[in-house]
């Protein structure tokens, strides 16, 4: 058996088409606005920010990018965040991480108006998420849920095992999947570096979500026949002949796909969903500020 490939590229494309239509329909009432703030010249961060702005423009979202010198003070960055907190044209504020070491990331993220926190990282939104209240869901976990739901994967009553306990992916996706919601109602086990006999847990999984940041760590002998695998990992493992970064997920794709019923590839799996969910949150925020949601 060879697994069905769950394409994040195709799913993200479909959602973006939906968002493009929604933005066009909102145009006479509100134009969603997103600002991305980049401090320093980290190449990966520059690439991420450029992709976010390109996607926003393609959807008809008003997008602004502010690039600051790496020596920018914490106070100056806080003042900039406050400026956009009070800007009626902006409905989403994204400060690209990581920040230079002299800036307290938590202090900056906490300064963003929770109603403009389209990354879903503010403690207020995290709390709302845990309680199952309306909020901006963190983009990558939200993307995982969309992939499962739109691929027709039954999550209700399923044994879901999450490998990785980060605040960005592992903990929020585990919380969301146990809630009474679409792509939820699962029985969830969260594994991490101190888990004893991890194979015992991964072999029980009907749905296995891996976000550990270790290339090819999950092998075929660690999963059962028919498992659905969502691989969140993106690891650089060298360079291609054309000089591009060679990427691998946290799952040994070639071996595991022969046992899985469905699996996400890397690249082209969860990755494209993250930016798409950021755009979805921005449109949701604009609706809320306009009193339409």
Automatic annotation (TrEMBL):
Q: Which UniProt keywords apply?
A: Amino-acid biosynthesis, Histidine biosynthesis, Hydrolase, Methionine biosynthesis, Multifunctional enzyme, NADP, One-carbon metabolism, Oxidoreductase, Purine biosynthesis
Which reaction is this enzyme known to catalyze?
(6R)-5,10-methylene-5,6,7,8-tetrahydrofolate + NADP(+) = (6R)-5,10-methenyltetrahydrofolate + NADPH; (6R)-5,10-methenyltetrahydrofolate + H2O = (6R)-10-formyltetrahydrofolate + H(+)
Under the heading SUPFAM superfamilies, the entry gives: Aminoacid dehydrogenase-like, N-terminal domain, NAD(P)-binding Rossmann-fold domains
List ligand-binding residues for NADP(+): 164-166, 234
GO molecular function terms attached to this record? methenyltetrahydrofolate cyclohydrolase activity; methylenetetrahydrofolate dehydrogenase (NADP+) activity
- Work out whether the entry's keyword set contains NADP: yes
Q: Which Pfam families match?
A: THF_DHG_CYH (PF00763), THF_DHG_CYH_C (PF02882)
Q: Which residues form the Tetrahydrofolate dehydrogenase/cyclohydrolase catalytic domain?
A: 6-119
Cellular component terms (Gene Ontology): cytosol
Extract the InterPro entries matched here. Answer: Aminoacid_DH-like_N_sf, NAD(P)-bd_dom_sf, THF_DH/CycHdrlase, THF_DH/CycHdrlase_cat_dom, THF_DH/CycHdrlase_CS, THF_DH/CycHdrlase_NAD-bd_dom
Task: State how it assembles.
Answer: Homodimer.
* Name of the protein in its database record: Bifunctional protein FolD
Upper lineage: Bacteria, Pseudomonadati, Thermodesulfobacteriota, Desulfobulbia, Desulfobulbales
Question: Its gene?
Answer: folD
